[in-house]
Every structure is written in structure tokens, then in C-alpha cells.
Amino acid sequence: MCRVIVLDDDKIQLFIIKKILGKSGRFNDTLYTDDGKKVLDFLIKHISEEAVLPQLLFLDLNMPILNGWEFLNRLALVYDDLKRPLAVYILSSSIDPRDIKRSHKYNFIKSYLIKPVSVKTMEDIIKDVE
């Protein structure tokens, strides 16, 4: 079983992700939120608790409170201290090559995905995590 955080404020994308993750039956704990600060606080609070930390994070770049780039910058400061590796997938409507290139500076990002993300892509990610 896999723990997942979906950090996104796109209601349609959230609906799709919820359906796919629910259908797979492989995720025992999924948090859906649009508050990157709360996610960072959670990760820091549980930084050494492998059983509590998620294995997978889907991140939208255009977010309220704390945008995706700010989130990634702060995550990069603590990432190496996380007791469990965290696979981060960016979900973005931006097709700007500069954004894609910028995402490559974070070694923990597995992929930059353009919204809307297909069911097939999500299923492939699920298989990868297992």
C-alpha cells in the first residue's frame, strides 16, 4: 500500500486523480489539499517517521498560499533528511519549456506532466511506485 499527497486546486484534475487512485485499490492513505504550507509542515513534523511519510506527491505549480516553485524550493531544503524517498510528479497546465527546464533542477522530480493527465499516464505512475 502507498501513501499519496495530491497538492492541487484544479477540481477537474482532482476528480480524475481521485477516481484513478480509488479504482486501483493500492493506496491506503491519500491526502488531497491545495495548501502547500500544510504539506511542508506535515513532512517536516514527520521527517524521520517512515511509516507516516508519503511515497508519492502530485504537485500543481499554480497554487494559492504557496505556489509550486516556492513549495519545491522549501522541499529541497529538507528532502535529503526525509526517512523515505518521495517521488514528486509535477502536474501543470504550463507548456512553457522554461518551466519544464526549471523542474529539472530538482533531482527528486520524477516527471513534469501536462494537464489534463490521462488515465493511462496515472496508471503507469501507479505501476512505477509499486
TrEMBL record:
The keyword Phosphoprotein applies. The modification 4-aspartylphosphate is found at residue 60. Pfam families: Response_reg (PF00072). Residues 3-130 form the Response regulatory domain. InterPro entries: CheY-like_superfamily, Sig_transdc_resp-reg_receiver, TCS_response_regulator. Signal peptide: none annotated. One of its GO terms (biological process) is phosphorelay signal transduction system. Keywords: Phosphoprotein. This is Response regulator. It comes from Mucilaginibacter celer. The lineage of its organism: Bacteria, Pseudomonadati, Bacteroidota, Sphingobacteriia, Sphingobacteriales.
